[in-house]
Amino acid sequence: MRVPLLWAFLLCPPLTAQDGAQLYGLYCGACHGADGNGATGGQFPPLAGSPWVAGDEERAIRIVLHGLHGPVNVKGRTYNLEMPPQGAMLPDDQIAAILTHVRSSWGNASPAVAPAKVATIRAAQQQRKTPWTAEELLRDFPLPLEKSALSQLISRSYEWSKPEMPDFSTLQALNTEEEHDGLLDAADAPRKEHFAMTWEGTFTAPQEGSYEFLLDADDGAALHLDGKKLVEITGIGPANGGRSKIGKIDLKAGSIPFRAEYYEFTGQEAVSAAWRLKGQKGWNWLSREHMGARPDLEPIPIEPENGRAVIYRNFITGTTPRAIGVGFPSGINLAYSADHLAPEILWTGPFLDGTGKWLERGTNPSPPAGDRVVKCSSSPALPAGTRFRGYELDPAGNPTFISTLGQQIIRDHFEASGGTLTRRISLNSGAPVRVVISDAFAWELTNDQTGKLGPLELHIEGAGTLSQGKPFTLDLTPGTVTLTYRWK
Ligand code: HEC
To answer: Which of 241, 238, 210 is nearest to 225 (CA)?
Structure first.
């Protein structure tokens, strides 16, 4: 049967803005977020407010057709990811509808995209087999100049040959310029080495709130807001994020005096500055260079799972390098030092935040993430010559740390429930072994076997003799001693 032409038309009506929103949800939303802000807490780049989707539509059409290969800077943040090509999956009219939706949503305000334009670009780029790079796209479609929050910006450059900030009032400017783009740029100086610069103008705060200002420089720089120095980088060194600094200030909406100072000793000349409202992702740049923005690290909590204790072997703040963290499901945590053979830090609540560990170079110690932190000791807890042999885990994940002194075996077991940490120390045979329970607190006995250990209540039962002074020690005889630690 032949379908009359009219029916064919009704079955395939032109796509509307509504269809664009639906198609966006199907084909883009998983990565760029339903609200265009980038999915998974901004791990993917935003389309809301992105200059990549504004202006000439060919830039965004090419990205959708062939994908994008990082790095790409979007709204002051660099993403080094891969967007897969969508061209084979999506016909021209659907791409046009999606981009029309993207360009007119979430505050974006660029004209609609016609299916014919997508068809033309698809045909022109038929040979293209690999995703675009940002660099290629920028060559053909440069982004519009950023509008900086600085206005009436005047730069002055000076001759200066010391690796420190000059007293500018004693210097004569070599050069004075008005920077109409409102951006700091060390390349505006007439010299390449041994110079200093200042920029003076007005910073316009869009609203009242807490602001952060980022500064990075090769070599030194300072930002002054409202006549006060907010943040400074001293000495000499590269601008690559390692020396960058952030200053914080509360501002009312409106204009305040802004001043930046900078000196270049030798080598690269670069200064970069940016601002944001506290809690915002990405930076609003005040400089031509965009350096110093370290990725915003989302916290990665390390938590006990499925009712089992979690063991974390890495640097923990406040104890020795060979620390073993244990997070019990009941919300009690300990850091056991394998160097000192002792539970050195006890705390309650969240265990540790692994952000620094997984995302940075992994050398930053993690501080306890919870509260009521108690540092029990910071010196060897077992006699010289005792060796750490490792640990065993019971089915609930509770650890027993094992050490040996000659033929003697010392087993130090920990488990927690309710608000109590239970520790069982046992010795297999031989002469008594002195165990330091705490070198930070003395033992204050309240009754037979219960006493105060700093902020903790401690109950002790079993085979051994206790000292009452500081350090607080236990002479362990063959058998087991049970210690229960409780937060008061
Ligand atoms: C599988 C995840 C994924 C999907 C699906 C996806 N994108 Fe992307 N997109 C990315 C990533 C990742 C980047 C950044 C790539 C890089 O680092 O170079 C990106 C970059 C972009 C950019 C340039 C940067 C920016 O934020 O403005 C645009 C425009 C864009 N995508 C549009 C779309 C549109 C429209 C769709 C739906 C048709 C879509 N993307 C689907 C992951 C995705």
So the answer is: 210
